[in-house]
Amino acid sequence: MKKVILDVDTGVDDALAILYAVNSKQLDILGITAVSGNVPLEQVNINTNRIVKLLGVEDRINVYKGADRPLLKQPYHEFRVHGNDGVGGALDDIAIDFPEHDVFAPDFIIEQAKKHKGELTLIAVGPLTNVALAVRKEPRLAEWLKEVIIMGGLVQSAGRGNTIPTSEFNIYADAEAAKIVFHSGMNITLVSLDVTRQVLLTEEHIEELKGTKYYDFVKQSTVDYRQFSINLYGINGCALHDPLSVGVALDPTFVQTEKYYVDVETQSELSYGQTICDFRNILKKEPNVNICVGVDSERFLQDFLEYLKR
Ligand code: RIB
Ligand code: CA
Q1: Domains (ranges, CATH) in the chain?
Q2: More exposed terminus of the chain, fewer Cβ within 10 Å: N or C?
């Protein structure tokens, strides 16, 4: 089984990604690391531990807290999409009666990458603060990690950001961290809004889960998210940004990729957090990121729903 660490800022789609990763039974999840993002770190930690308990795997999957703020800028949260607690209030009745694990998330990533050199896939679906701290502390992390699958950015759909026109939330929340990671030498696949927005979980899809264990959670947790989509895009569905990133770890053929030089804007107020892809190699720089140029959304959605029905 593929060894993975999930780095999350549990919010709704992070929670769905964790459900999908565990229920696939195809990933050896060494641990989950939490980072400030959609909601503050403490809430991310609570949400992530509650999902782990909902899955009944709290005795074998630990959650490790990481950065409680970006490297330089002030924290930026996304309550509009994920609700005040990050999961639309859908986990309120799950008590967390087990101890926290006091290894700092970046240290856990380094430790596991060193222990499993060349075998570990890091799936980062929140701001990249933990990953940047880890590779700054231990630059060899870039060669120890087999691959890093990052949910973030937009490279072809210019102007269609979900925070400011040029930028996607995970990158915008800590562009300095993203810049460090993109220039670290890691084997990066960037699962950007260009493809994740094509993977929409609709009400019809949710109703397919009726009678299964996670139906109530999926339906309740996505209410705010779907309303946000209706208001912004006129679509009653939520984009499965983070689950698709897990999907790429399970089956890389869900997406088509090409490698280019990608950099991150950190100076401009107008375009802070923009992921800039040099498609024509004008800058003559070494390609550093595998970007996604296509997605087999129907096949992925069926896979996702199949595993959630288990
Ligand atoms: O832009 C979407 C990304 O930002 C997703 O990972 C979502 O969970 C938020 O972290
Ligand atoms: Ca996320």
Answers
A1: 2-309 (3.90.245.10)
A2: N
